[in-house]
Amino acid sequence: MTLTAHQQDKERYEANKLAKRLRRCVGQAIGDFNMIEAGDRVMVCLSGGKDSFGMLDLLLYLRDHAPIQFDIVAVNLDQKQPGFPAEVLPAYLKGLNIPFHIEEQDTYSIVKRLIPEGKTTCSLCSRLRRGVLYRVAGELGATKIALGHHRSDIIETFFLNLFFGGKLKAMPPKLVSDDGRHVVIRPLAYCFEDDLGAWAELQQFPIIPCDLCGSQENLQRKQVKQMLQDWDKRFPGRSKTLFNALSRITPSHLMDPALFDFRNLVANGVPDPDGDRAFDPESLASPDVIPLLPEED
Ligand code: SF4
Asked: Which residues bind [4Fe-4S] cluster (predicted)?
């Protein structure tokens, strides 16, 4: 189909707006959590999915435009899944002319050997992958490990932990790895999944399907995703409110004595106009009136 000049202008305008929104979200997340500092060598984990391609693309833009100097090295772990098109990522990365490393480790066979047929393989597979990536980060001298999780992943993880793990816990934008040796960052923490999907299409990233291992998508995550999509249809803006709530926590109004010293709490005689109104009915203004992130261009 041939587009008219007006349609082409409109498409260019929309693509430009999308690029700006994604770059702004990444820049803001990096700034808010001090994810990248001058002199960092950032290992960008590239799985071949739309999110990791987007992350690499956005970080490369930032590397070339940020006021600080940092390096990027892209890393893919070839887990030897049957049908994995091993030539796709090296060809793409060579085309970008950036440093990269493909780590070949047959974690697929280990998972197949250790997990009985029909059981979920993802948790062992991810654990093995994590171990390999931490080792590679050390070998490459990376100071940060960047993962391509976005805001929907964060909200979904929050509900998975709440419903199935009995914990108030999401997916942090920055953390120290469980071996204590690396700082892991999630520069896409503020990005919308739909934006990343649209960007992947526009950029025509050579996406590698993520179901090569034959594993079913985690059923609990699927249910949570569906619940959030239904909510957003019925109550537009709800997931935005939920996401914002993750940055506005009041430990004194939860029940974790490790976070708030309830035991030694005493009246201090100082009135607090914004404090608790224990005897008043709750009245909740929509937190959406103060969006945490600017959404307009
Ligand atoms: S979907 Fe397959 S490759 Fe991905 S974590 Fe699960 S088992 Fe591993």
From this structure: 122, 125, 213
